[in-house]
Design brief:
The complex is a heterodimer of chains A (192) and B (123).
Chain A (H helix, E strand, L loop, with lengths): L1 E4 H15 L4 E2 L1 H12 L9 E4 L2 E3 L1 H12 L3 E5 L6 E5 L5 H26 L4 H9 L2 H9 L3 E3 L6 E4 L3 H10 L2 H11 L1 H4 L1
Antiparallel strand pairs in A: 1-8, 2-6, 3-4, 3-7, 5-6
Chain B lengths: L4 E4 L1 H8 L6 H15 L6 E2 L11 E6 L5 E8 L4 E7 L26 H5 L5
Parallel strand pairs in B: 1-5
Antiparallel strand pairs in B: 2-3, 3-4, 4-5
Classes of the chains: A alpha+beta (192), B alpha+beta (123).
Chain lengths: 192, 123
């Protein structure tokens, strides 16, 4: 059995979640809300959430989303209105492995992602907002004027029922520094 | 048919220069370099789960006995070049690229500084 770092796990969770949206994720707002509903009752919490002017929001999730974009695992397509982006996978071939990795780490979390994306992923924005704002934990935080909804809860290394080599490949393929360096090196002509 | 040319990145050259003479590690590195020379197209194992722009281009070979360090090579298929990029100085199973200044691989070779290069020395 291998292990992966918590940063790799965060990237995997977000990549898998984005991949579950058949027609891409319509905006960061929606992605934040969906991931909040996934994580509010799960054992492992790859992202902490706080209450801000956007409702349930995770800065960490926004950062990881940018990393996925920078590594070219996902792409951002602007909405016709010009305000916001649709996020989708650049290559759907790897989703089978990411799905396998998710089920070998935390099958319940994977099922929860599948369920929440199916039920909330494409709700009209108004309805999604209404659900988010009527969430009992959110209402309690509003009432008590608490900003933190829940904190990140992850060990430093996460055990995965995959071979060491698969874990290392997963780790490298989701490492922004490695991917950035390798992308630069891959352009032989451009470097001359 | 044009054969592959093998080139060494500055980071790898530095690492190689700092390997102890006649050590097991240098012998294994030489052996892997020989394998790359002889079988440039099949040497190494392609890293998996990469996005299309890198898929099949990055390969790894193991050196240092019982799969200790990973040696990363890049295949420039169009140019028929194999570039030996670097040997990861951290042991297998101890990946944490936050502490390795991989950004030096994105710098022009004459701008790479010794301070950061030292972090790549294999102990």
């Amino acid at each position: 059995m291998g292990t992966i770092s918590k940063d790799t796990f965060k990237r995997l969770v977000l990549l898998y979640t984005i991949g579950r949206f058949k027609d891409g994720v319509y905006g960061l707002f929606r992605l934040n809300k969906v991931v909040y509903f996934v994580l509010k009752d799960t054992r492992l919490k790859p992202f902490g959430f706080k209450r801000d002017r956007y409702g349930q929001h995770s800065n960490d999730l926004d950062t990881i989303n940018e990393q996925l974009l920078s590594m070219n695992h996902t792409k951002a397509t602007p909405f016709e209105s010009g305000q916001g982006n649709k996020y989708s996978l650049t290559d759907k071939k790897n989703i089978r492995f990411h799905s396998l990795a998710m089920s070998r780490i935390d099958a319940k979390l994977k099922e929860k992602i599948d369920e929440v994306v199916k039920n909330y992923g494409y709700l009209p924005e108004k309805e999604l907002l209404q659900k988010a704002h009527s969430d009992p934990e959110f209402l309690e935080a509003v009432e008590k004027d608490i900003d933190l909804l829940f904190d990140e809860k992850l060990p430093n290394r996460i055990p995965v029922d995959l071979s060491d080599d698969d874990c290392e490949d997963l780790e490298l393929s989701l490492d922004p520094n490695f991917i950035s360096a390798m992308t630069y090196l891959s352009d032989w002509k451009g470097r001359r | 048919m044009k054969s592959y040319k093998i080139v060494r990145h500055k980071v790898f050259r530095y690492q190689y220069e700092h390997l102890a003479q006649n050590s097991l590690l240098i012998r294994q590195v030489d052996k892997q370099l020989e394998i790359i020379e002889k079988n440039p197209e099949t040497a190494g194992e392609a890293l998996k789960y990469l996005t299309p722009h890198l898929a099949g281009k990055i390969k790894r070979l193991w050196v240092g006995g019982s799969k200790k360090y990973r040696m990363i090579i890049m295949v420039h298929k169009e140019e028929k070049i194999i570039e030996v990029c670097f040997i990861d100085p951290r042991l297998r199973g101890k990946l944490n690229y936050k502490t390795l200044p991989l950004e030096i691989l994105e710098m022009p070779e004459d701008e790479i500084d010794a301070k950061r290069l030292k972090r790549f020395i294999l102990k």
